[in-house]
Amino acid sequence: MKKIILFIVLSLGIGVGVKAQEFKAGITAGLIASQVDGDRMGGYYKAGFVGGLYVYRDFGAASRLQAEILYAMKGSRCSPKNTNPDLLQVSTINIDISVSYIYKVLDWLNFRIGLTPSVLLTSSEITPTGLIIEPREAPAFRTFGVLGLAGVTYHLSQHLTLTWTYNYSLYSIRSGESEIYSLSYKEKNAQHHNYMAFSLGYTF
Questions:
Q1: Domains (ranges, CATH) in the chain?
Q2: Whose C-alpha in 27, 37, 88, 151 is 20 to 30 A from the C-alpha of 13?
Q3: What angle do CA 28, 29, 30 make, to 5 degrees?
């Protein structure tokens, strides 16, 4: 997986170098407000950092294809008023490689939709009291996942943008068995990343 990430980064860099007149690049950084569906806790109480690099190319006046490689901190946190020791707060650090189609509604307003392959770097589960729990009965976290995303970008200036995205795991972030029950496909012990990202971008 590390070789795949390195290949993508090098490919993006070569593409920018060879066709600089067609590609543009920039940096982005911001905050994530997240929760994990399926962990018996609700609310976007978990805050994390997101940041990285992006490159894009315009196709006509209204279309753009953008790729990003991001360092992202995700997970879940229970309500500050909830101290149930049986709850387990999830904390993960991922490398996300997203590819988005961007539709330029106006010069200053864009919509986007895309997919984000995600590689897990670290994971942990912590009780509301701060005790770190080693996984026992619950399936381990998957090393690789895929999320769907949709968002809006507002152009503050020619180089500076503000972007909001909503992101959701397309399948469980935990490994485990799956089954078809009552004509519905279900994953046992399923948990899904569910988060919003707010970020500033600067195009060189």
A1: 2-13+22-203 (2.40.160.20)
A2: 151
A3: 135
